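tool_call: predict_structure(chain=1)
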Amino acid sequence: MLWVFAIVLGLVFGLVTGGNLTNLARLKFRWPWVIVAVIVVRGAVLLTPLNGIAGAQYLYVVALAAIIAWTVWHFDRVRGIWLIAVGAASNLLVILFNGARMPVAPELAGSLIQRGNLGQYTVMSSATHLNLLGDWIKLGPLPEAYSIGDVLIAIGLAIVVFLAVRNPGGGSAWRRRPTFCSAR
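tool_result:
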C-alpha cells in the first residue's frame, strides 16, 4: 500500500507542478515483465500454500535480487531509480542475514506472532540480525510494518514518477555521455 501511495503522490505532485501524464508514457523500461514477475513471486510466497513450505522464502530472495539488478540496469534511463535500488538492497541485506526472512517487530506482526515464520517474514527478536533494517516502522492507522528499505523504495518511486511526469522525455535522456574532443 505504501508503494501505491508513493506512486500516486509522485503523479499528483508532477501534475500539480505543470507536468503532463503523457510524459510518464515516455519512460522506456527494458524487460518490464521482470517487475510483474517479482510481484507475482512475492505474492505467491506470502499468500499461497507456498508460505508453509520450508525454503519457499528463497524464491523471494531471488526475486528481490532480480529487482535490484533490474533497477541498476536502468540507472542510465530513469532518474531517481537508484534510490529504489538502495532500498531493495537494504531489504535484501537484512533478509539474507536472517535465513531469507524479513524480521517484523512483534507489536506489528499480527498473526505472525503465533506462527513465528510466514513466507518471507519472521518475528523480530534478539535472535534476529540487523533489526534496524527490518520491518518496524508504522505509518498511518493501518497495522502494517515497513522497513527503512521500504521507505526508501517508496521515496524513490515517488521521485521517479514525479520526474517522469514533470519532465518531457521521462528522464531517459537525463544523463548524456560526455563528448571528448581529441587534441590535434
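agent: The radius of gyration is 19 Å. Proceeding to next step.
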